[in-house]
Design a protein that fits this description.
three-stranded mixed β-sheet; alpha+beta; 107 residues; Small_GTP-bd; 3 helices; Rossmann fold; single chain; GTP-binding
């Protein structure tokens, strides 16, 4: 069976930075502007899509890396597949970031 999208149109992104840099906030905006979500989830409200664990929602920090896929059509109408990994920023969860680096095209 053929792929629905050509593999050359796939991009694997990792959002990585120090704690409170806005990684999850950036990811939430990407999901909203590509139409994956209909509301921008706010980290401080515990409503971020990517922070799925109860402890993440309560503490307002990312503990585990979370992956999602969204699609974006360019000006010519060509659709691109974006695989996004939102990673933790706290030094205690560095292993989550290291695992994510192995599968990314860009970070």
């Amino acid at each position: 069976m053929a792929r629905e999208y050509n593999i050359k149109d796939y991009r694997n992104f990792g959002i990585m930075a120090h704690i409170d840099a806005g990684k999850t906030t950036t990811t939430e905006r990407v999901l909203y502007y590509t139409g994956k979500s209909h509301k921008i989830g706010e980290v401080h409200d515990g409503a971020a899509t990517m922070d799925w664990m109860e402890q993440e929602q309560e503490r307002g920090i990312t503990i585990t890396s979370a992956a999602t896929t969204t699609f974006w059509a360019d000006r010519n109408g060509k659709t691109h597949r974006f695989n996004i990994i939102d990673t933790p920023g706290h030094v205690d969860f560095t292993i989550e970031v290291e695992r994510s680096l192995r599968v990314l095209d860009g970070a």
